[in-house]
Design goal:
The protein contains four helices and four strands, in the order H-E-E-E-E-H-H-H. By secondary structure, it is α+β, with helices and mostly antiparallel strands. The chain has two domains: 13-65, no CATH class; 79-114, no CATH class. A hairpin with a 3-residue loop joins strand 1 (23-26) and strand 2 (30-33). The radius of gyration is 17 Å and the shape is globular. 6% of the residues are buried. The model has no long low-confidence stretch (mean pLDDT 82). InterPro entries: Aminotransferase-like, B_amino_transII, BCAT-like_C.
Length: 115
């Protein structure tokens, strides 16, 4: 895979509307392409499906998650910690905030032990 320099930062609406491709990332979705964005009645479409960069990122991330590629940056957690965080996300999505907080708290205890 060709290396691409990235940075995590806030993006202005104008920059978003001028983009060629847009995607979101996360633990559960890995990489999810954005089809269009509408702002103040102005709809911008980004095409169908996943683009080349998104596909490469998806491949790299899933290979890390499955343990196929060595995680030299320590981006992944042991399976049991990941399970707690995934369950916390599900609890939050179902508006069970107290359970979500409890699961994240338990995951953090494990992380402190692992590190």
């Amino acid at each position: 895979m060709e290396y691409v320099q990235v940075e995590e930062r806030l993006v202005s609406v104008d920059e978003l509307l001028d983009a060629d491709k847009v995607f979101c990332t996360g633990t559960a979705v890995v990489v999810s392409p954005v089809g269009s964005v509408t702002y103040l009645g102005n709809r911008v479409s980004y095409g169908e499906g996943i683009g080349a960069v998104s596909q490469q990122l998806y491949s790299v991330l899933t290979r890390l998650q499955m343990g196929i590629t060595e995680d030299v940056m320590n981006w992944t957690f042991p399976d049991y910690i990941d399970a707690y965080l995934r369950l916390a996300a599900i609890a939050k999505a179902r508006n069970n905030i107290l359970l979500s907080i409890e699961l994240v708290h338990d995951a953090l205890k494990f992380i402190c032990l692992v590190i």
